[in-house]
């Protein structure tokens, strides 16, 4: 599936009451943020590989759907149910013909619903929504866990393995992903069902395993997915993250400990032999030579 989808269609129609005027807002309706990797970093966010331009304009149906001149326009992004004004990028009015907002490198975390708010020259307002979609991407925090692409697929990641000792009370794996619409998350164990002692959080981002035993050893997989339509064309996206859990016996430390003890004993023997040899040589030097 291509990651480069840029499409616009009629955005919305708003009928203004009072004077019988009818204004139609139109412009870019939906975008898919183009990305070339499946992992973003809090310290170094993943950004779009190409510029994105959102735009809108007004048509006045009373005048044969002529483009009406814009007096003022601004864009907002819906965050946690609230509209927040986009003020880090300037709006270009193009002489009042349309309003556009260009992101040279949009942070994938800022995908979501944008709204174009337009004020016509007569003071009347219209607005329309623009959906900026993003496929699921891992948002990593810190560098304690390493990730590599599996089979050269940027959206199939393998996390560094983790080793625990049998009897460990609790272990937690996280799968913090971002995208728009919000991705759904599913966990599997060795491509099958999770062990009974493994539970997921309500949002699916956290997997907790209790009372670690040898049977818990294997590959835990987080699959994040979202779906949307652009111009009636369905898009289905997935991000897969594998992590290997190794479980060692609680007495496994005795093997390296035994090796260390043996090495220390051998070292002690060597040192003792060397010391005895040194003393013997010194004694021979101190003994007087025997006269014939």
From TrEMBL:
Which parts pass through the membrane? 250-274
Q: Which CDD domains does the entry link to?
A: Ig
The species this protein was found in: Steinernema carpocapsae (Entomopathogenic nematode)
* Classification via InterPro entries: CEA_cell_adhesion, Ig-like_dom, Ig-like_dom_sf, Ig-like_fold, Ig_sub, Ig_sub2, ZIG1/7_N
Q: The Ig-like domain covers which part of the protein?
A: 154-236
Q: Name one Pfam family in it.
A: Zwei_Ig_N
Its signal peptide is: 1-21
Name it: Ig-like domain-containing protein
**What are the entry keywords?**
Glycoprotein, Immunoglobulin domain, Membrane, Signal, Transmembrane, Transmembrane helix
SUPFAM superfamilies noted in UniProt: Immunoglobulin
* SMART domains reported for this sequence: IG (SM00409), IGc2 (SM00408)
């Amino acid at each position: 599936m291509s990651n480069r989808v840029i499409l616009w269609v009629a955005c919305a129609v708003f009928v203004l009451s009072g004077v019988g005027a009818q204004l139609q807002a139109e412009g870019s309706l939906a975008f898919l943020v183009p990305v070339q990797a499946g992992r973003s970093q809090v310290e170094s966010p993943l950004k779009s590989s190409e510029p994105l331009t959102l735009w809108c304009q007004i048509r006045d149906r009373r005048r044969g759907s002529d483009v009406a001149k814009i007096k003022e326009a601004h864009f907002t992004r819906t965050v946690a149910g609230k509209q927040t004004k986009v003020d880090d990028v300037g709006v270009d009015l193009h002489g009042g013909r349309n309003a556009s907002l260009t992101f040279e490198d949009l942070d994938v975390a800022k995908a979501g619903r944008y709204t174009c708010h337009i004020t016509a020259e007569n003071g009347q307002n219209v607005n329309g929504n623009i959906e900026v979609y993003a496929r699921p991407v891992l948002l990593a925090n810190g560098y304690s866990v390493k990730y590599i692409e599996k089979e050269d697929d940027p959206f199939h990641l393998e996390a560094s393995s983790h080793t625990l000792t049998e009897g460990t009370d609790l272990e937690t794996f996280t799968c913090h992903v971002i995208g728009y619409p919000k991705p759904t998350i599913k966990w599997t164990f060795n491509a099958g069902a999770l062990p009974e002692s493994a539970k997921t959080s309500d949002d699916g981002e956290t997997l907790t395993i209790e009372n670690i035993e040898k049977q818990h050893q294997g590959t835990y997989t987080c699959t994040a997915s979202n779906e949307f339509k652009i111009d009636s064309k369905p898009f289905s996206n997935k991000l897969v993250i594998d992590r290997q859990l190794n479980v060692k016996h609680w007495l496994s430390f005795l093997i390296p400990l035994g090796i260390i003890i043996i090495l220390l004993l051998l070292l002690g023997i060597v040192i003792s032999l060397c010391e005895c040899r040194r003393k013997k040589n010194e004694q021979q030097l101190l003994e007087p030579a025997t006269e014939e």
